[in-house]
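Quick start: what a row looks like.
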Amino acid sequence: MNFHHLIPKLLILIITQIRWTNSEGFYDTCSRSFSCGTISGIQYPFRRHQDPPECGYPGFELNCDQNNLPTINITNITYRVLGIDPATQILKLVRGDMINSCPQDLVNTTINHQLFDYTPSYMNISFLIGCPIPFDVEGMISSFFCTNIGINPVILVPGATGPGVCKTSVVIPSPVGFTGLVEVLQDGFEVKWKVDPGPCADCIRSGGLCVSDISRLATTCACPEPPLLADTCSNSKVNKTDVGLSPPSSTSSPTSTGGIKHCPVAA
């Protein structure tokens, strides 16, 4: 029997076991909250790209630039992060490839629905690109030219629409009842992350720090004293006033954004 195909899997298991056996550093290395770019007070399930993978849930890695908005990669598309609201688990995003009101990468906006869901206040619109002239389609919102993509004109229509007689189409979420193209492309859209806040809330209340067990795709608790990893910590030696930030709420409305931390996007 050929066991060579098992070697990579065995190595991953061994490395994972070593990391978790030597997990004392997670409580000190991972942050209860952190700043990334122009946004502060960010908590688990997010982590900075330079942090150990266990500091955040897989798929929530942020790339930080001190003077700019943080970015996140979702299904191979880079988004700028306009705001993060831990209470409602709302993440506000805008595509990072929009140049002069036009998408640079001619691919549909997509999210990982295992991790995120669109909020109800958004609808799809389609950029029909490289359409024949003259061109008319029912419900057309506007038409314009994109100098950066070299194929024109571009027709904006509601809904997720295929290219038809045009060369291609790009679907982008927009606010329901939007009033202008700039609003669509610069104000971004909201998604709700689906990581269960319960285990993290229990961990924080017990004096622990929320981390990720990547092998199980689950939230676990890093503790300041043995056991170093557990569902919750024994808080007998933890001063509850030092626990830090309040745990994320599991009962907040998914459409509320009152507590969102954000920065405006430059035109």
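That is the whole record. The CA atoms of residues 7 and 174 lie 47 Å apart. The radius of gyration is 22 Å.
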